[in-house]
């Protein structure tokens, strides 16, 4: 049950085609087929079945795919941890961020981190919160910048930053705002902001017309164009407010306090701790727990500490939900 077989199986599961899986992995189609056949033989159950001209996972294959993702993610996390422990400044860091965080708070943070630690191998995935928390649970991400981690995801919050969600609209629409009749522009399903907006409307018995737009930028632009009201991060609309294209609505129980969270696996790698140290040097961020406090030291001190394995390092705290 080799790593290459698992990668072939997941590529097939995600593409639904032997040919597409082979193209993704830069191998032959026969190599993919052989890997799937060998994996099914080892497990003793069929993992895929023919559907038309393509293939689909069997129920057993669907269940096994979830475990395969975690196994491969854990192997990658182990490699990152080993490299980072040997030299945090030359380790790997897999960041994931929700769209608003990626747009508003990450660019400056990443630029500063690159200046200080140019040899860190850095990757970034931006997407809806539901997908990113799945990445963390599957060990496919080292740190997620987003809202509070959901229950059931093994995690550790190391830092937080204030973030207010406000309801906005074009000034003319804001002047006549009604929870029942004013249309709302909403994020896509899977977005944490959309879930918060839906919960807010349900709590206040609001049932307005809704228009779904596909990104945070589209929602802000749609609200500014007069398509409807929107629940957005205050950090994301400074330019629109200054230019008078949007106005904040004095709606009941707003603004909503939804801090940004820097969330890692229960045992973050040394290179991840290096990024958290840098993050805690930035305005507005603070350590979330006593266990995270040592990371608030200067980056140089954090690097020195990370390079020496400390036998007395406190055990990871419980998941913060």
Task: Describe this structure as you would to a colleague.
The protein is α+β, with helices and mostly antiparallel strands. The chain folds into 3 domains: 3-57, Winged helix-like DNA-binding domain superfamily/Winged helix DNA-binding domain (Arc Repressor Mutant, subunit A); 85-162 and 259-307, D-Maltodextrin-Binding Protein, domain 2 (3-Layer(aba) Sandwich); 164-257, Periplasmic binding protein-like II (D-Maltodextrin-Binding Protein, domain 2). Helix content is 44%, strand content 18%. It has 13 helices and 14 strands. The protein has helices spanning 3-15, 18-25, 29-43, 59-86, 99-104, 106-116, 129-137, 171-174, 192-203, 216-224, 238-243, 270-280, 299-307; strands at residues 48-51, 54-57, 92-97, 121-126, 143-146, 156-161, 164-169, 184-186, 210-212, 230-233, 247-248, 256-257, 260-264, 286-287. The strands form 4 sheets. It has a 6-stranded mixed beta sheet with strand order 4-3-5-13-6-14, with helices on both faces. Strands 7, 10, 11 and 12 form a 4-stranded antiparallel beta sheet that branches. Helix 1 crosses helix 2 (18-25), helix 2 crosses helix 3 (29-43) and helix 12 (270-280) runs antiparallel to helix 13. The radius of gyration is 23 Å and the shape is globular. The chain starts with a helix and ends in a 14-residue tail after the last helix.
């Amino acid at each position: 049950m080799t790593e290459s077989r698992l990668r072939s199986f997941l590529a097939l599961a995600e593409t639904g085609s032997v040919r597409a899986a082979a193209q993704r992995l830069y191998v032959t189609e026969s190599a993919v087929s052989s890997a799937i056949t060998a994996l099914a033989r080892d497990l003793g159950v069929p993992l895929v079945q023919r559907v038309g001209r393509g293939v689909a996972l069997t129920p057993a294959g669907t269940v096994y795919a979830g475990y395969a993702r975690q196994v491969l993610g854990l192997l990658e996390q182990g490699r990152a941890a080993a490299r980072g422990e040997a030299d945090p400044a030359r380790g790997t860091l897999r960041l994931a961020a929700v769209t608003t965080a990626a747009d508003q708070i990450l660019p400056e943070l990443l630029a500063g981190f690159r200046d200080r630690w140019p040899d860190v191998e850095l990757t970034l995935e931006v997407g809806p919160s539901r997908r990113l928390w799945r990445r963390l649970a599957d060990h496919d991400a080292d740190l997620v910048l987003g809202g509070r981690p959901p229950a059931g995801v093994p995690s550790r919050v190391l830092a937080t930053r204030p973030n207010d969600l406000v309801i906005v609209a074009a000034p003319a629409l804001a002047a006549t705002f009604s929870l029942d009749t004013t249309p709302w522009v909403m994020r896509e399903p899977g977005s944490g902001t959309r879930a918060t907006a839906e919960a807010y409307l349900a709590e206040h018995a609001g049932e307005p017309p809704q228009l779904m737009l596909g990104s945070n930028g589209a929602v802000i632009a749609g609200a500014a164009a007069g398509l409807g009201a929107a629940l957005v991060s205050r950090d994301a609309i400074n330019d629109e407010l200054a230019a008078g294209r949007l106005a904040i609505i004095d709606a009941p129980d707003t603004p909503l306090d939804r801090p940004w969270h820097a969330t890692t696996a229960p045992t973050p790698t040394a290179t991840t701790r290096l990024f958290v140290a840098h993050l805690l040097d930035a305005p507005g961020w603070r350590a979330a727990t006593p266990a995270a406090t040592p990371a608030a030291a200067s980056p140089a001190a954090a690097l020195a500490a990370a390079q020496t394995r400390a036998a007395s390092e406190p055990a990871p705290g419980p998941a913060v939900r």
